[in-house]
Write a structure and sequence with these properties.
163 residues, four-stranded antiparallel sheet, 6 helices, 40% helix, alpha+beta, single chain, 4 strands
Length: 163
């Protein structure tokens, strides 16, 4: 390259870029303005459309305790002896035994049908078809336990000892 072409290239490069002092000057003015007024200018306030304030849902991390609060997990206190309080031997219950192959028990108020079924199975070694329950007006729960056809409710009642 000749000296003339080098000079032309330098002139065109100088024309393309503005002087460095002008850009530094505007940067300095912007920094001064930010320092005096602060970087957070006037903020637009959100328009509220309802009279209620709903708190935003934030991150809720799962609990990770350092040690267990209970040394041994609590076992269910409803075992088969607590689920079934006692058999019922009223006239209506006897009719159920004879006609529908059904035993009638008073059971714990918190026991559900599955627990009643399992308790009768464990205590009397019988197969249960279904369990119907109701809460009596005095606040006790009554369970009608329908036995499978291979077991006779009268025999089981004799085995229990209330007939």
């Amino acid at each position: 390259m000749s000296a003339a072409t080098k000079g032309k290239a330098a002139k065109t490069a100088a024309k393309a870029q503005p002087p460095a002092s002008a850009s530094n000057d505007t940067k300095a003015k912007a920094a001064k303005k930010a320092l005096v007024k602060g970087v957070h200018g006037t903020k637009q306030r959100k328009i509220r459309t309802t009279p209620y304030f709903r708190q935003p849902r934030t991150l809720r991390l799962p609990k990770s305790p350092k040690y267990p609060r209970r040394s041994v997990p609590k076992l269910s206190s409803l075992d088969q002896f607590r689920v079934i309080t006692h058999p019922l031997n009223t006239e209506a219950a006897m009719k159920e035994i004879e006609d529908h192959n059904t035993l009638v028990f008073l059971v714990d108020l918190k026991a559900n049908k599955k627990q009643i079924k399992d308790a009768v199975k464990k205590l009397y070694d019988v197969n249960v078809l279904k369990v119907n329950t109701l809460v009596r007006p005095d606040g006790r729960k009554k369970a009608f336990v329908r036995l499978s056809p291979e077991h006779d409710a009268l025999e089981i009642a004799n085995k229990i000892g209330f007939i």
